[in-house]
């Protein structure tokens, strides 16, 4: 490795272009002469301009827009009230549902939508239902009339 002699610099590393310093003196002198000759800017105002010039400066300061604190309080109180209303409307304190509280219409619609004939057939025993089981079921005319007169068929289904 070439670690020896690195602290000794042989060249400065900076180079100037050729003929760089030959025209330097003349350029400095021409710049100084231009500054002496152009002492005035060349822009002049008319003689009575500043005496007749009037600018109306507004005396009142513009009001700074400030957000009032009562609006923040109203918003925070409203959001707290909405959160409490939502909390109590979710029925968190209601009792658990039981089978007795279900209506028969809800139960019927659930069974129609969620169950199939194969699932219902699993509920019955393996014995086959025969036609004679339905034919031998005797009802007298008074029972049939009372069944037809009732308006609440849900109760009949539950019986």
Shape: elongated
Provide the gyration radius in Å. 53 Å
Question: Strand share of the residues?
Answer: under 5%
- Report the major sheet: none
Uncertain segments of ≥5 residues (pLDDT<50)?
Answer: none
Helical residue percent?
A: 40-55%
Compute the separation of the termini in Å.
106 Å
* Structural class by helix and strand composition: mainly alpha
Number of strands: 0
Number of helical elements: 8
- The SSE string, one letter per element, is HHHHHHHH
Mean pLDDT: 77
List its traits.
single chain, 159 residues, mainly alpha, 8 helices, 48% helix, transmembrane helix, membrane, transmembrane
How would you portray this structure in words?
The structure is a single chain. The protein is mainly α. The chain has a domain at 126-159. It contains 8 helices and no strands. It has helices spanning 24-37, 49-52, 69-89, 104-114, 117-123, 131-135, 141-149, 153-158. It starts with 23 loop residues before the first helix and ends with a helix. The model has no long low-confidence stretch (mean pLDDT 77). Keywords: Membrane, Transmembrane, Transmembrane helix. The chain crosses the membrane at residues 73-93.
Write the layout of secondary structure elements.
Layout: H1 24-37, H2 49-52, H3 69-89, H4 104-114, H5 117-123, H6 131-135, H7 141-149, H8 153-158
